[in-house]
Every structure is written in C-alpha cells, then in structure tokens.
Amino acid sequence: MTTTTADYTWPSELAELRDVVAAFRERHAGEAAVRTLAETTTPLDSRTWQIMAEQLGLAGLTVPEELGGAGAGYEFLAVAMEELGKSLLPSPLLATTALAIGTLMRAGDASARERLVPALAAGQITGTLGYTGADGHWDPARKPQVRATRNGDGWRLDGTVHHVLDGASADLVLVVADTDEGSSVFAAEGPLPGLVRSPMATLDGTRSQARLDFHDVPATAVGVLGAAAPTVEAVLTRAAVLLAAEQVGGAQYCLDTAVTYAGTRTQFGRAIGSYQAIKHKCVDMYLEIESARAAVYYAASCLTVNSADAEPAASIAKTLASAAFDRASADSIQIHGGIGFTWEHPAHLYFRRAISTRALFGDPRRHHEVVAASLLDRTTRSDASTSPPESRRVQ
Amino acid sequence: MKVDDERVLSDDGLENRALSFLADRRRRSRTQGALVWGEGDDGAVAIWDDPDPDVERAELDVARTYRRARFDAGLGWLDGPVEHGGAGLSAASQRRFAALEAQFDTPSQAFFKLDRVLTPILLRYADPEIARQHVRGLFRGDVIGCELFSEPGAGSDLASLTTKAVLDGDTWIVDGQKVWTSDAHYADIGLALCRTESQVSGRKGLTAFLVDMRQPGVEVRPLRQITGGSSFNEVFLTGVRVPDSHRIGARGQGWEVAQETLKIERTAIGVGMGRGGAGVANGERLVALVRSLGLENDPIVRQRLAEVVMAFRAAKHLQHVTSARRRAGDNPTASPLLAKLTLSNNLRLASRFVTDLLGPRLAADTGEWGTFAWNQFVLGEPGMHIMAGTDEVVHNMIGEQVLGLPREPRPQS
C-alpha cells in the first residue's frame, strides 16, 4: 500500500469555475426543468447545451488546446461535475466527455481524434460509447455482442449493445465490437439506417440509457484492432472519477436540504434537528461526503499527472462517493419524513440517481476488487521473486 | 510553499546539522517503510500503551536523554519562539526535520506527547513567568505534563465536575478525584480543572490550575482497563496546595481553557499522533496478515480488506485536503472533529475485520507471530470512541457548530 503524497493545491480558478457552474445551475437547471426533461425523455434543448459546451466550455475542459479544448486538469472537470451533480439536469455532458472524448483521446488514433474531438469539445455533436452486454457490466475477457466485418475499405457492424448512455440521442456512437483481431473500437456517425435505438425504461429518468441494435451498419475502426480492452479500462477509470464527483454533488444537495428542513420542522415542540438521532445522521452524511470529496480530488489529480496510483484511487473515489450518495439520499428521505416519500418532493429523484450511478462505471464490488488486487496481487508477484525464507515465520 | 521551507532549513545549514546530529546518535532505520512479516514487535498494533513499569522507566530515561540532546543541539523545537528555546522557524521546517528523523531509529517521544498541547495553553493563559519556566522544559524533556480533567462523575460532561479548589490567602487548596489520566504516573505537572465558585454550577464556576504532580497530597494509582493493562490512572488530590500564580487563566475561565486544550488535542489525535493514526501502518500489516493466513484469494476477504484500506486512504486524503486548505489560508474548523470520528470509525472497521480474519487465533494464542497480538487492538478499540470527547459529543459539536443545526435543549446553568 502506497502512502499518498500527492500535493493538493487549490488554484483559485477551481473556485471560479465552481461559481460559474453554480450560476448556470441556478438559472437553467431548476427542479421544474429537470422534471420536464426526465418525464418526457426529450434531450436537453440545444440552447442550454450550447451554454454548457460553448460559453462554459465544459465539454472541452480536459481536451488539449490544439483540439479546441481548454487543456485543463481533471480537477476542473470534477469540480464542474460536482456542482452540476447538485441538480439532476439531464445533459449529454457525462457521455460526451467521459465516454466519447475519453475513448478518442485514449485510442491512439490521431486521425479519428483530429476529425471528431474538436466537434465534441465544442458541443457541435454529442457522443457516447457502447461497451456492455445485457448485464450492464464491462468484462474485458468477454466477447462483445457486436460483430464487425470488413467491407471494402470500411466495416459493417451487426449485433447489440445495452445500457448505452444517451444511446438514443448521441450523434456519434462509439462501440466496442468483436473482430478477428479481438475487441476493437468503432465509430458510427450521422443518421444510420440499420441502427435501431431503443430507449430502455430507467429507474433514474434523468439519465437515459438505450439498447442499440446494429443491422449491417457502416462504421470506421478507431485505433489499433484488438486494443479495445485497455482503452475501455482507461476510459472507465476516468469516467468513474467524474461520476464520483457528480455523486458528491448530489449527496451534498441531499445533506443541505436535510439540514435546512431539520432546522425548521418541529415535532413534539422542538426542531427535529435538535434531536441527536437526526443530528447525528446529518453528521454521518457530512463525514462521508467530505471523505468522498477528498478522495475524488486526489483521484482527479492522479488522472491529471497520469500517476501509477490512478486506478486504485479512482476505485476508492467511486466507491466512497457511491456510499456517501447512497446514505445521503436515503437519510434525506428519512429526515423529510412522509413528505420525502412523495412523488412531488425531489428527494426520490436523488435516491434514483444514487441507486443507478452506484452501478454505473463499475459497482462497489468491482472497485473493491480493483483495490484488493492493487494490494494483494501486485505485491504477491514481486514477493515471488524475492521470496522470504520460511524461517522468518515465527511458530 | 514547500520549496521555501526547505530553503529555510538548508540556508541555515540546519539540514546538515540535523543529519549529522541524527547520524551521530542513531543508526538508520532498517525497516523504514516496509513491514517484514515475522520481524520486529508484533504488538505494535496496540491502540493503548501497556508498558511494564520497569521497562517504561528505562525507556523514559533513554527518550529523555535523546530529547535533551536534541533540544541542546537546537533541533528540539524548530517552529517554537526563540524566547522560549525554539528556533523560530516555520511549521514546515519542523515537518521536514520530523521526516528526516523518521529515517532513523530514534527513541519514541510518546512520553512527551502533551508538549504541543500544553504549550499554546500556557503561553496564552498562564502567568508569563510560569509559562517561561515550563514551556522550555516540555520541549527539553525536563517536564512531562498530563491533563486532570475527567472525573468518575464527569467525563464528556466536564461542566458537572466536583473537584474543589478553595482559596486560602494566596494559595488554593484542591480536593477531589480525577480519572482516565494518561501519563500521570510519570508526569511532573498536571493541568487540573477545578470548581472554584461553589455557588455557581456548571461551566461558569470552573478554573484551571497547573498542579505539581510531585507534591504531597497527589496520589496516582494505575487503573486497570479492558485490555488487561494499564495506560491510565486515577489521581487523588487531597489538600493539594497550589499557589495562585499557578492559576491558568482567570477565575471562572477554566471551561474555556479545557475546551481549547481538548481542541488542540483532537487535532493532534486526528493527524496521527495516536498509534492508529490514519491507519496506513496497520493497513500494511493487514495486507501482510491476509497473505500470511493464505486468504489472499478469498473473495470475501479481498472485498473487506479493500473496504478497510479505502477507509484508511480516505482519512489520509481528508488530512491532505485539510492541510492544503490551511496552507491556502482557509481554516476548516470541522477538520479535527472529522479526523477524530474518522479515526474512531476506521478503527472499528479494522477491528471487526481482523476479528473475523483471525477467529480462533484471536481467541487463543497459538504462538504465531502477528496474530494473537491483535487482541490489544481489538480490546483497545472501544476506548477510542470515548477519549477526547465521546463520538456522540463530537457528533453534537459538528452538528451544531459546523452544520448549524439547532442545539440540544440544555438545563440552565
């Protein structure tokens, strides 16, 4: 186990970005807007998306300047995601940045990158990545259910991917497909006859998922054939940190509203927040949120500098943030009492987001396993080479 | 910031002076950073000290000799004010020296752990002459301090304590009983919280004093605790005479003095002065334990090990963020309180894990290194939830002071 010695710095630009995103959220991401979008499953209007992508520059925040982005560290995108996580505005940001841009930046394909990333970074097109089977999990050892076959200079895709974020609306669909060389990444762009997009019914209506059926759909290969697994792994590591940041924001919202309510609602002649049973619940929420937030910032700074610790750090951030959001969203309902259990109250929207994001980009069990492997497996291998004599063991 | 401080240390030739001081006296630590299973003290996991009195006395002598030499070499208190024997450098210089020192096998300075807790209190509240006499001694190892706060009838509710101090001329006569006093059996001075205004109940009638622990009327009895050992004492104060010059703060200001002391102490515990710290050392030990038990491929053990280590790492991250915010000029008031709860929670998590992991080996000693020794961790763990303000009291403080929740209704005082 490594002792973490990353330098935490707090550039004032981080706080500035947070303020700007908070102002956007207050103006454009109110509960009414969120509910309308969630209940009608219409995508975010293009004007609001333009504000996010063009005026705030969120889509291209971590994209290098030569590709039209701001070239900022992951801490910045994490702060933006955290702030946006306080509201549940359905937007193409997560899929476009974490999945589409993330994949193109890591697939080692300069021409695809130069062709597609600037448009994504500017918000002119949105994107996503299809990489999971029906169970919603990623397993590099498993053969994708989409098959790519050569067709002259290009490729044709046949098969199905499930649980594709924004799969029904994304302009650019990246997909992991099986080839003779192994799992590879392909890009399907524009209106595509033969691609059937079926929105899935989702527990969290603020984040859409779709099943995509490919019937002889033209596509281009991205990166080296057979190299999808390490690309997807790297993408999911980054996506997990960004999602964890969003979860911290969601949890913070739940805590803030619970504290406010507990300070004003009276029962048996006093504010319920004066009872230790309620007060201590709020403090436990707060402690988990602060821990998760610190872990997210550490993981984000690891991503920025490409630290060897990035993978376990991402897993820790995602697990802690999932737990914090899980607790905060459930306890917020409890503290709000009966009213918190009604459809009219927003508490259930956060509860839904907490449950669905817990499973997204690796559930806690998988991330626990990543951390366990970093502790036990790596060292086991090095131990094997310098095996300690048995006599060291005191009987 | 970090760079600047390193320059301070090296510009003065301090870094070289520090290294030559250390190299002259101590050998480089062989085990630094790496745990070798089966080597060293497997009892190092204990949460509370439980020393054999003779061994402890010998260790204290060694620790004191080293501490005096370090102080006399100008390295004992780098970030302390010059007029009190410090070197007048920054806190970062002190950290830098501590990092250098950690590379050597130096005697534990745990005997003197209240130096940084009592010093700011003395400098702020004590008669300047009294402060001058003691502060230097705290850092040179001439004076060891303890806290005489808790009583059998007043733990977290210090406002209800009953030890009395009555003024007789310019001397106070102290009578009462204190309990849970760490270090009292070798301490030279004790910061005692007493009731001075008999007609005023609650916190307003309290005053703090610096008590000479070597004088007649002070009787220290070791208190045997859950772990079977003794790291705390009962202290009986019978007609103990304390000159008014040893009053710490004004009459009736004792509550504030005690709260400030506890605040500093919690910060110290949280940043890892306590044996468990953020748990990094114990994390390594748990990994080694899992492997030595042949459980490294057990999926449930892997999940739970990850859970414990994640909690340790989270505590570490929280600490780093806190210090970054401090350096940036922010003062996160919640952080010592959060650190205390984090430590309590993490030790509980680790204790449950190690209990399940060891099973029969924890119930009976098989003689195997690094197994039964964990009993001192598991048995000591409940104490961490009580010390320096119970977890419940800390929850109340965070809820009210940080989150701004309404106060628990309190009886009039």
Automatic annotation (TrEMBL), chain A:
Residue stretches in coiled coil: none
Reported cofactor(s): FAD
Protein origin, superkingdom: Bacteria
Keywords carried by this UniProt record: FAD, Flavoprotein, Oxidoreductase
Acyl-CoA dehydrogenase/oxidase C-terminal domain span: 234-375
TM helices/strands, residue ranges: none
Keyword Oxidoreductase tagged: yes
UniProt keyword Magnesium, yes or no: no
Domain named Acyl-CoA dehydrogenase/oxidase N-terminal: residues: 13-124
UniProt cross-references to InterPro entries, sorted A to Z: Acyl-CoA_Oxase/DH_mid-dom_sf, AcylCo_DH-like_C, AcylCo_DH/oxidase_C, AcylCoA_DH/ox_N, AcylCoA_DH/ox_N_sf, AcylCoA_DH/oxidase_NM_dom_sf
Span of the signal peptide: none
Family: Belongs to the acyl-CoA dehydrogenase family.
Name of the protein in its database record: Acyl-CoA/acyl-ACP dehydrogenase
Organism from which the protein derives: Rhodococcus pseudokoreensis
TrEMBL record, chain B:
Acyl-CoA dehydrogenase/oxidase C-terminal domain sequence ranges: 252-402
UniProt domain Acyl-CoA oxidase/dehydrogenase middle: residue ranges: 146-229
Cofactor: FAD
Swiss-Prot/TrEMBL keywords: FAD, Flavoprotein, Oxidoreductase
Xref: InterPro entries: Acyl-CoA_Oxase/DH_mid-dom (IPR006091), Acyl-CoA_Oxase/DH_mid-dom_sf (IPR046373), AcylCo_DH-like_C (IPR036250), AcylCo_DH/oxidase_C (IPR009075), AcylCoA_DH/ox_N_sf (IPR037069), AcylCoA_DH/oxidase_NM_dom_sf (IPR009100), Mycobact_Acyl-CoA_DH (IPR052161)
Coiled-coil blocks: none
Family: Belongs to the acyl-CoA dehydrogenase family.
Name of the protein: Acyl-CoA dehydrogenase family protein
Species name: Rhodococcus pseudokoreensis
